[in-house]
Amino acid sequence: MAKAAILGFGTVGSGVYEVIEKNFDSIAQRIGEPLEVKYIVDIRDFPGTPFAEKVIHDFSVVENDPEVTVVAEVIGGATIAYDYTKRALKAGKSVATSNKELVATHGAELIALAKENHVNYMFEASVGGGIPIIRPMQRCMAANDIEEISGILNGTTNYILTKMIHENLPFETALQQAQEKGYAEKDPTADVEGIDAQRKVAILASLAFGKHVYPDTVSAQGITKITLADVEAADALGYVIKLIGHVKREGEKTFAYVAPHLVSKNHMLAGVEDVFNAIMVKGNMVDEVMFYGKGAGKLPTASAVVADMIECAKHAERNIPLHWEDTKETIIAPAQQFASPWFVRSEDGEEALRKALPVQSVCQTDGVTAVITQPMNEEQLTKALRGLSHVMTRMRVL
Ligand code: HSE
After folding, report:
1. Local confidence band at 90 (pLDDT 50, 70, 90 cut-offs)
2. pTM of the full predicted structure?
3. Ligand 1 neighbours by CB, cut-off 6 Å
4. How far is CA 249 from CA 116, 140, 145, 209, 246, in A?
């Protein structure tokens, strides 16, 4: 019997327990022995539940129990979770997690610590919730150099934008719905300001290039400033608005950033709606592949954590090497230097916009002009817009 502990019994933690209980037999077949949850570590008690007796408050009980070989860290954050993860790895236990903040900030260190202790640190659930992306990139695409990753990486913001696009719903109402459904983080700032997606981009870029990309080197912009008028103008031009995480290699430079984008209605990412996430990865041999599925929510995320727990149990005391090294120097170039077409909405009028910008298409909605420019970097755009006085929106086009 493989024995496990769940650290944190919130949405994902309770999902992990449910997945293990529901699929107990098939999980046992896959590991070659049953997987039993011996402890649930949480600050709360859960009296009257079938698992009440497993609940403990002191992590050192797990740390000092040699029977426990697999730990699911689903506490979130990078403080207590960081401490417990290090202690678990040092005590010779593998750790599976959905904690993107911790992976994005301390991934290289924790991967090295796992290696040192002949165990594993696995984080499939940290990007794309239930979508297989980490292992496919790490294993199935291992023969490729990664050239580009573009993805819808946050379920909450995609849900909000879908509601704004199709139901004309105000931002606040859509956000409230996302929270009620358990998609949003406790503090939705991380979702709506692009910070959650920023962490996921940092993880994907680290995996793609084998060097730790720290989240603060990935510029992030959220969706809080997007209005229904932007949505309407984008629609008139043949686009939808999506929050995109983008990683691209161009010659010697690597760009990585998160920002709302106009996405052509013909693009595969345009049809990705509600809480669904999709990640397009371009390898220099395989070309483009796309991963699609539920990027948030209790059971999809928990299923990815449990898949990692199974992998950890199958490889007890054997480290599976992962190419992800720490680095002092960032490999990421400033996003302002990245050239793309831009969407600009302005009350300055079509003539003034055409004079200031290399316009490729134009529309008018409610007396306001919106244009799509030829590709230009942000520095060039800022300079070009200096002559205009009533610019309301500027947004990249994918
Ligand atoms: N709050 C996140 C999202 C959860 O909405 O995508 C999954 O990382």
Report:
1. very high
2. 0.95
3. 129, 154-156, 183-185, 191, 196, 295-296
4. 32, 20, 10, 10, 10
Mean pLDDT of the chain: 95
Q: Locate tokens 């497993």: which residue? A: 54
In this prediction, residue 170 carries a pLDDT of 87
Closest CA to 21 of 47, 40, 48: 40
For residue 156, the CA-to-ligand 1 centroid distance in Å is 6
In tens, the pLDDT along 271-310 reads 999 999 999 999 999 999 999 999 888 999 999 999 999 9
Q: How far is the CA of 155 from the centre of ligand 1 (A)?
A: 5
Q: Residue 196 to residues 129, 159, 167, 222, 241: CA-CA distances in angstroms? A: 12, 14, 25, 10, 18
Residue 179 has pLDDT above 90, yes or no: no
Q: How far apart are CA 383 and CA 398, in angstroms?
A: 21
The number of beta carbons lying within 10 Å of the beta carbon of residue 242 is 26
Q: What is the DSSP letter of 374?
A: P
Point out the residues that are catalytic.
200
How far apart CA 174 and CA 162 sit, in angstroms, is 9
Task: Quote the tokens at residue 56.
Answer: 């403990």
What is the Å distance from ligand 1's center to 362 Cα?
35
Identity at 232, one-letter amino acid code: E
| Cα–Cα distance measured from residue 204 to residue 209, given in angstroms and rounded to the nearest whole number | 9
**Which of 162, 196, 275 is the best mutation target for the ligand 1 pocket, counting ligand atoms within 8 Å of the beta carbon and taking the most?**
196
Residue 238 C-alpha from the chain's centroid = 27
Does residue 180 surpass a pLDDT of 90? no
- Helix 228-237 crosses helix 155-167 at what angle (to 10 degrees)? 80
Q: Which of 97, 102, 153, 154 to mutate to test the pocket of ligand 1 (most atoms within 8 A of CB)?
A: 154
